[in-house]
Design goal:
Strand 19 and strand 20 form a beta hairpin. The chain has one helix spanning about 5-30; strands at about 35, 40, 50-60, 70-75, 75-80, 85-90, 95-105, 110-120, 125-130, 135-140, 155-160, 165-170, 175-185, 185-195, 200-210, 215-220, 220-225, 235-240, 250-255, 265-270, 275-280, 285-295, 305-310, 320-325, 335-340. The strands form six sheets. A five-stranded mixed beta sheet has the order 1-22-21-20-19, with no helix packed on it. A four-stranded antiparallel beta sheet has the order 2-25-24-23, with no helix packed on it. Strands 3-4-5-6 form a four-stranded antiparallel beta sheet, with no helix packed on it. The chain is mainly beta. Bound molecules: calcium ion (4 copies). One calcium ion binds near residues 41, 298, 299 and 332.
Length: about 350
């Protein structure tokens, strides 16, 4: 026979559990300030499982509506998509984890948009030029540049001070190296110029070419700002932390450039399927968090790794820029990337 006393214990436990669940829901709700929807999603990546990782946006200055999304498939290569999500090219060149790009790189008497990716197959820097006519990527690596015992997160920087181009790459042990990217005939070479560390596993990073700041995500800890110049040393300050507006893992990050130091820093907060937005300038004041929900016949994103954003007008589909996020679980099976009009997330800068 069950007595009232025997029932009180499990009922008490259930009540505590309900309060905990309800509390957690409230906390997540407070942290994620609203939901937006994608208007385009890319074709799925080639490989199954956790394969898609990081996007970059090539802004086609002559024909903005013909800009492209370059996305990594960390199980085999990288792909180029048009703004309707159609795949234009797939390069089965290795286990590309993160991708980034910079325009204006001088090469053989012209300037190119240089694309780099961290190739985890052999810990090298994959380097490509965007062919503006075909929109495809062409290999420009002068040689296999091995960057150490791992190529995890990576990002690029163009110094406003010196005009030099750099590649940052990190390892799971917290080590970072910075490489100067150097023209070598009609190819590109690289040379290490700096090393520094964080205390635990990093991945996402992004450099702000306007302010000279390098943002680094230490996945279970927080977002740090370092100087992006090769002589900036080890000095760092914290922008936000896990338990603040971020839930581990901290993943991809990207910068939406406005005039001067206006604009925003976007960070993927993978643990609660959200994205945090901060001011680019000042001390990176927190602006908002958001999620990408189902809508327009496109499923929302969850557990996003990489993100990319631009404020450039990309024609009628994305007149005020676009935010791109990797989606861990696409409703067609394989992973892909979702595109959200930027004006549905932040005011124009
Ligand atoms: Ca993933
Ligand atoms: Ca990660
Ligand atoms: Ca999804
Ligand atoms: Ca879908």
């Amino acid at each position: 026979m069950t007595t009232t006393k025997q029932l009180a214990r499990p009922l008490g436990a259930v009540a505590v559990l309900l309060v905990l669940i309800f509390g957690a829901v409230l906390v997540v709700k407070a942290r994620t300030g609203g939901s937006v929807t994608a208007t385009v999603e890319t074709a799925p990546v080639a490989n199954v499982g956790d394969a898609a990782d990081d996007p970059a946006i090539w802004v086609n200055e002559k024909a903005p509506a013909k800009s492209t999304i370059i996305g990594t498939d960390k199980k085999g290569g990288l792909a180029v998509y048009d703004l309707a999500g159609k795949q234009l090219q797939y390069l089965p060149d290795g286990e590309m984890n993160n991708v980034d790009l910079r325009s204006g790189f001088p090469l053989s008497g012209r300037t190119i948009t240089l694309v780099t990716a961290g190739d985890r197959s052999d810990n090298t820097i994959a380097m490509y030029a965007v062919n503006p006519a075909t929109r495809e990527l062409e290999d420009v690596a002068a040689r296999l540049v091995v960057t150490g015992s791992g190529a995890y997160g990576s990002c690029m920087y163009r110094s406003a001070k010196t005009g030099k181009f750099y590649y940052f790459v990190n390892q799971k042990d917290g080590g970072f190296t910075q490489w100067e990217l150097i023209p070598a005939g009609d190819k590109v070479d690289a040379q290490q110029v700096r090393a520094f560390t964080v205390d635990s596993q990093p991945e996402g990073c992004v450099a702000d070419d306007g302010t000279g700041v390098l943002y680094v995500g230490e996945e279970a800890v927080g977002v740090w700002r370092f100087g992006a110049e090769p002589d900036a040393g080890d000095a760092r300050t914290q922008v936000d932390r896990v338990g603040g507006n971020l839930v581990a893992d901290i993943e991809g990050m990207s910068i939406a450039y406005g005039k001067g130091d206006a604009g925003y820093l976007f960070v993927s907060s993978q643990g609660d399927n959200s994205f945090a937005v901060y001011q680019r300038g000042g001390s990176n004041e927190f602006v908002r968090s958001f999620t990408i929900g189902d809508g327009n016949g496109i499923d929302g994103t969850s557990e996003s790794d990489g993100v990319a954003v631009t404020t450039a007008s990309l024609g009628s589909a994305f007149p005020h820029g676009v935010f791109v996020a990797q989606d861990d679980a696409d409703d067609r099976g394989k992973q892909n990337f979702k595109l959200v009009p930027l004006q549905s997330i932040v005011p124009r800068t």
